[in-house]
Hints:
By secondary structure, this protein is of the alpha+beta class.
Amino acid sequence: MLVGKTLYLRGGYLDNSLKFDEHGHIIGSSPQGSYTLSAIEISKTHLTKHKVELEGIRYGLHFGGQLASEDLSKAYDRVRITQKKKTVIITVDREIVVNPKKKKEVKTGKEKSKKGETSVSPPGQAAAPAEISEADQLKASIAAVPVAEQPGDPQSVTTTTSPLHATKLLKDALSNIFAQGLDERMVAAMPEFWKLYYEAVAAKSDYRPKDPAVLRQNTVDKKAQLLTKFEPDSNEYAQANGVAGMALYHTVVGADGKAQEIAVGRPIGFGLDENAVEAIRKASFEPALKDGKPVPVLLDLVVQFRIFSNRTNVHSNPEPTDKPAEPILPGPYSLQHP
Length: 338
């Protein structure tokens, strides 16, 4: 069911060692990131009585720059994030199958022991063993295996007498942890700027603002302008894997000069789109004017992400020159697109 398949890790957990309980809820905590950093290709599985252990490789998604209305059959490349000879280990606890309790037989008539008599087993026959509760069976089962094979959260493990029920619970847990593709649950859990992108993908059209009162830049008397410095951060995954390029974001700039609705236009992936949107939300704009009044408009922002080096590091200072030069942009920067 899993080996050889590339799955999306719901929740975007970034740790390389993850533990989940029998319902698919994470045990402990883990940093979370973009779904574009959460593709896992399962290479091995190991099933024991108490848990299933999955081994795999994490991939990042690097988009090719297609608009939502364009052919997305090859919209992205998978780039291996997990270092060579390293793997991602994911364990999922299992519900424990125990023996059902035996019903006590009720003696009637002559079978009932007389008052004061003591029941003694016939010579050579051992006494019937005392019943073991399901809780005791669970404790004994966990104690009987090495620590490495014990469930991640013994306190939350439940028992059942039905192997079918335990199997169904495991499959449900795996469904809560992984998505086979970008299903409805996966998209529903994404930030709004990704939802708007995939709505446009489904409609095979470009993004349109939900508010019909939002104007276009070419229909106003004075266009909206970016006022503040705008440098979305890169991240360690992109830098380590040489992911750079340009991305496009559709932004509704309100009459107050603040970014309102934002949609991904041309994604880049690798968690960089999240950084760009965060920077857009913090930016300030000069609002557009129509008939002398500020009005909301749709502004496209083109963002370029670059790879840093010792010569272009964000902390380095430009060398002095004798003549004025264009300002050096040490990192990602934005261009307004009319």
